[in-house]
Amino acid sequence: MKKHNRDVRDLIYVHLNQPAQYVMSCGIEFREFAAAFSEFANHLLLLKHQFDDGDFNRHTRFEYVPRERIGKLAREDIHAYGDFCWVDFAEEEGLNELNGQEIAELLYLGHLKHHLRTPFYNQLDNRFVYLAHDDGWFNKTYYRSFTDFFSMLGYVIPLKLGDLKLEKTLFGIKKRRSYPIVNKELLISLVPYMKEGICISIKDAELQRGRVEIPVWVIGDFANMDDMVEAYSQSVRKPCHAKIVFDKKTKEWKLFVI
Length: 258
Description:
This is Oxalate:formate antiporter. 27% of the residues lie in helices and 29% in strands. It is an alpha+beta fold and 258 residues long. It has two domains: 29-135, no CATH class; 159-220 and 238-257, no CATH class. It is built from eight helices and 15 strands. The protein has helices at residues 30-36, 70-74, 92-96, 100-112, 146-164, 184-188, 191-194, 225-235, and strands at residues 11-17, 22-26, 43-48, 55-57, 62-65, 83-89, 128-133, 138-143, 167-168, 174-175, 198-201, 206-207, 211-218, 242-247, 252-257.
């Protein structure tokens, strides 16, 4: 585990690369990703992993996780796997239709975490390509539709906020507070910043009487997450570029660009 890894669970770093259809992120773990897609209909073809309850596909020589076992996978300590890479697929018949070139491309994806050609295959009908090292520390995820990305992020932000910012009851007992999902339109407004690379800092959120303010800093494009954390530590001393605000009275999220 990198020295910063435990800290970044309360940060969300996002760098959006629209032309190549991927998002570089830090701070979002597979368990959170999977929870955001509770209606996940596809199986997972495992390119790099240490999961010991997968099935074996003879044609590709890859193991895979049937959709009914994804919940079990999400409860694993995936961070400890090191490399964790997968592609989702609709039916096993599609795996058997992959040719040698396509299987080689999948091997390349898992090995170098980069695409040779577009990593979306008609035979698989895949929505994602998930390429992680120390899951939650370095994640590179390809999205067939960025609508899925904004839906996932809108789910994860309030999830993390509820886990971190516990509120005291009348008797001083801390309890987890639930927040509604952040709407996609609000997050889409941050796309110009996401293209540069942003840090959404749950750990620096301010709980006020009538609202919760989550600061957002533009910190740049990073593939090395140690460098990203260092850039965040410098940026946090300066005014933020935007705030994602939850209004407790209206129960709505708002965005303020500063």
